[in-house]
Amino acid sequence: MTGAAVRADGLEVRYRGAPRPAVRAMTFQVAPGEVFGLLGPSGAGKSTVQKVLTRVVRGYGGTVRALGRPLPEWGSDYFEHVGVGFELPAAYTRLTARENLAAFASLYRGPVEDPGKLLDRLDLGAEADRRVAELSKGMRMRLNLARALINRPRLLLLDEPTSGQDPVRAARIRAIVRAEADRGAAVLLSTHDMTTAERLCDRVAFVAGGRIAAVDTPAAFKLRHGRPGLRAEYTEHGALRRRTFDPALPDDAAELSRIIAGGGLASLHTREAALDEVFAEVTKVRL
C-alpha cells in the first residue's frame, strides 16, 4: 500500500508506572479513502493509538507518519487536516448546536462546511438552536461527529461513533463516515461494536493486550474462520426444512441442485463465522 495517510512502525507506548506497555510493537497503515478499524475490548490499546495520532501522547517508541510527514514534524497546522470524534461528548453546553459548530469552524483557516447543512446531514437540524445542555447523549454524539467533519478533514479519527444511537441513526452515521472515505479521507476507527466494524470497515485489526493479533477484511476473516458447507432453508411437501449441504460431496451437490431447480429454495447461506467468534479465536480473548 503506497501513499499511506497513516503509517505506524513498531509503535510502543508505556505509561509512567505501568507494569507493561499499553501499546506494543504495533505496525499498521491506513490509506486515503480507507476505513480502518481497531477492534478490541476496553484496555486493548485502541484509545492510546488515537491519543498518539492526536498528539496527546508524544512519548512513544517506533515511528509514526501522518499525511506525508513524520508526526513530530507537524506543527499546529496538523489539525487543519484532522477531524476528531471521540466517545465522550465534548461541546460548550451553554451554546446551541449551531453556535458550537460556528465557533469550531472559526478556528480553521481553510474551507469549512456550512454548520446548518452539516446539522441537517446528521439529523440535528431541528435541534440546531437548542442549547447543548438540553440535548440527549445520542444528539451530543452526532454533534461530536459534526464537529469532526466541519473542516473537511483528510484524516478522520473516530472512537465509537455509533454509541448511543438507535439502529436507524447508527446506519446513517455509518453511511456518512463511508461518504467521507469515498471523498478521499482516511478514517481510523476504534470500536468494540462488531456490527459497526463489519458494515463499515474496509479492514480491521484485532487488538488485544496492546498488540495487533491479525489484520484483514471482515469478509476474509469470517470466511477463513467459518465452517465448510451451505445452510439452506427450503420448502418440501408443504413444510419448511433446514439442512446443511457440503457442495464438495456429489450427493449433497445433486440434492441442492434439485431443490434450487424445483423453486423451493427460501434462503442459502455460507457457514461463515461471526466477527466476534473470529476475534475470540485469533486473540484468545472474548469480547
Descriptive terms for the model:
287 residues, six-stranded mixed sheet, 9 helices, four-stranded antiparallel sheet, alpha/beta, globular
Description:
With 287 residues, the chain is an alpha/beta fold. It is 31% helix and 28% strand. The protein is built from nine helices and 13 strands. It has helices at residues 46-53, 97-105, 115-121, 137-149, 167-183, 194-200, 218-224, 250-261, 275-283; strands at residues 6-13, 23-30, 35-39, 61-66, 69-70, 82-85, 155-159, 186-191, 203-208, 211-216, 227-236, 239-245, 265-271. Strands 6-7-8-3-9-10 form a six-stranded mixed beta sheet, with helices on both faces. Strands 2-1-4-5 form a four-stranded antiparallel beta sheet, with helices on one face. A three-stranded antiparallel beta sheet has the order 12-11-13, with helices on one face. The mean pLDDT is 91.
Quick description:
This protein has helices at 46-53, 97-105, 115-121, 137-149, 167-183, 194-200, 218-224, 250-261, 275-283; strands at residues 6-13, 23-30, 35-39, 61-66, 69-70, 82-85, 155-159, 186-191, 203-208, 211-216, 227-236, 239-245, 265-271. The protein is of the alpha/beta class and 287 residues long.
